[in-house]
Structures are given as structure tokens and as C-alpha cells.
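User: Structure please.
Assistant: Input sequence and predicted structure:
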Amino acid sequence: MAERIYSTTQDQLDILEIRDDYVILKNGITCAVLQTTAVNFDLLSEIEQDAIIAAFSMLLNSITFPVQVVLRSKKLDISKYIEKVQRTENKIMDPLMKHQAEAYRRFVQEFIRTYEVLDKKFYVVIPSGASLEQEPGSGPFDWLTRLAGTHKKRVSVNVDKSLSDAKIQLSPKVDHLVKEFNRIGVRSKQLKTQELVELYFDIYNPSNVHGQRIRTNIEDYKTAIVNPAIIEE
């Protein structure tokens, strides 16, 4: 007799729920995620570079809580941009301008054939709860492994209480980091619920996203993506 086991892919992840702009993990930790811009350090003058280094040192010295810095780098799909350029090119009536638009399109197409165009995004994860020093075996990348679903510890989590506590603990930390990043010319913002859902969907489904809009209805993203296993008895 075959027994069908019903399970969603989300059951295999460490993310319990995403709500009110926070990520609640199955180990009881709640995280806020900031997305930041970058600074082209090489283009700055020597004086500006020294100022950035000094400001960044002050930022690091001001942090009294654990954070995780995450850099996501993935191949950029610009096919839609090429299509847009092609449509604009077809509408141009002036022969000289049309030639220039065609030359630009061919240049971009040749460039992406020769070089890999990457899209880089920067994130800072701020966890609530115990510090890294209080958890044996934790390391500087431990928060990333938890968010990536490789940390296996499970506890009973009261989502409402976790959110309530996290808002008290994390809000001042988020505000502090946003202000400190602004001092060094880095803009940052806390990701909203919709953005968090899309971010993690993109992480676990890198070939399926392509700019699609993911709904945040909890039943939508708890739907099983793979067929459940069948155990023969």
C-alpha cells in the first residue's frame, strides 16, 4: 500500500513566515533586511577615500549587535532592454538617427556576447535574539546559512510575540544603520514584505523569476512546488 506524504517545499526551508516587513525563522530568530547602494571607491579622490574610510570605521565601531552583509551577484538579463531599443529604432524616421540607434543596439548585443553582465545587490541582515557570541558554533556567516535554509535547529515559535519583540529590538538598530550608512554616502532602506517575498523567491528559484510579480497571500507561496514523495509499504 502506497502512503502519500503531503509536504510543501517551504517545509524544507528555515523561513517560517514573512510578515510586517520581517523574516521569521523556524529557530525563533526574526530578521530585518536592509538593501543598500554601493560607492565606487576607485573614482573618489584621495581625500574622499580617506573620509569614506574614516566614516566606515566609525560605523563599524558603533555597531554593538551582530549583522550579516550579503552580496548577491547574478547574470543580468537585458533581452527586454534590447527589445525596447529595437522598437525605438523602428520608429525613427531620420536616416542618421536610425543608423546611430542601430549601431548602439549592435554594440550592446556584441558587448553582452563578449562579457558577462552582472547585477550586484547588497544587503545587510539584522537578527533579533541572542548575539553570535552567545551561540556555540556560530560564525560570521551563520546568519546567512540560516536564511539560506541550512541551519536545522527548530523551536516552537509564537509568530505574533516574535514580531512584537523584533519591532522593539530591531527598529532602533535599523534606524541607526540607515543613518550611519548615509554618513558615507550609501543609501539604504528596509525591505518591505512584498520585496522580501520576491527576494527569497528569486534566491530559491533563480531561473523562474524574470521580473514576475509574486503575490504575498500566505496560501499562494505555501503551495507545493514539487510532487510529494510516495513511500511503499
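Confidence is low (pLDDT under 50) at residues 130-141, 223-228.
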